[in-house]
């Protein structure tokens, strides 16, 4: 990894963790709320600590991925737009779901977020074939998160 890539990695890592921190402002109170404690949750819902560990791992991998694709000048504008959309959707899910208790809007948000991340992987696949594995955990986790949100939407 070059010095420029390290700089890009650090910028994306900081932006990713800012997103996690902003989302976390709504998660802590939301998880302990009466609303969340009393709704029907999927039997495969992992323990709370898994979410923090998973998101930390995902955002580190995603920052590496973004630093690699960022050096592709011809796709920088597309990647910046997709990253911005991803950032907004990622941050906004927490207040939508935990603060406003809008599980249907949360599900729509996750579906849009999944589309953005899959789109990012698709447009960059040809230039970063070996690095696509860095975005795959994010896609897998979004499938899990979507299934958890969908279960809540359809069972409450």
Summarize the structure.
Helices cover 79% and strands 0% of the residues. By secondary structure, the chain is mostly helical. The chain has a single domain, classed as Ferritin (Up-down Bundle), CATH 1.20.1260.100.
Can you tell me about this structure?
The protein has one domain: TspO/MBR protein (Ferritin), CATH 1.20.1260.100. Helices cover 79% and strands 0% of the residues. It contains six helices and no strands. The radius of gyration is 16 Å and the shape is elongated.
Layout: helices, strands, pairs:
Elements: H1 3-32, H2 34-38, H3 48-70, H4 76-99, H5 103-124, H6 136-154
Helix pairs in contact: 1-3, 1-4, 4-5, 5-6
Give the fraction of residues assigned to helices: over 70%
Per CATH, what is the topology? Ferritin
Query: Beta-sheet strand percentage?
Result: under 5%
Q: Examine the secondary-structure arrangement and name the CATH architecture.
A: Up-down Bundle
| DSSP summary, beta strand count | 0
Counted by DSSP, the helix tally is 6
CATH class (first level) name: Mainly Alpha
Series of secondary-structure elements, N-terminal to C-terminal = HHHHHH
Name some characteristics of this structure.
79% helix, Ferritin, 156 residues, 6 helices
């Amino acid at each position: 990894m070059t010095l420029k890539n390290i700089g890009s990695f650090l910028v994306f890592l900081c932006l990713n963790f800012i997103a996690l921190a902003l989302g976390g402002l709504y998660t802590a109170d939301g998880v302990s709320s009466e609303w969340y404690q009393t709704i029907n949750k999927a039997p495969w819902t992992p323990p709370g600590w898994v979410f923090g560990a998973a998101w930390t791992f995902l955002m580190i991998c995603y920052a590496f991925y973004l630093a690699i694709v960022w050096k592709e000048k011809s796709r920088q504008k597309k990647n910046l737009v997709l990253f911005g959309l991803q950032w907004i959707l990622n941050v906004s899910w927490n207040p939508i779901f935990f603060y406003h208790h809008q599980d249907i809007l949360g599900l729509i948000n996750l579906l849009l977020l999944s589309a953005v991340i899959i789109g990012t992987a698709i447009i960059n696949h040809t230039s970063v074939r070996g690095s696509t594995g860095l975005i795959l955990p994010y896609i897998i986790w979004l499938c899990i998160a979507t299934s958890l949100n969908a279960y809540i939407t359809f069972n409450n």
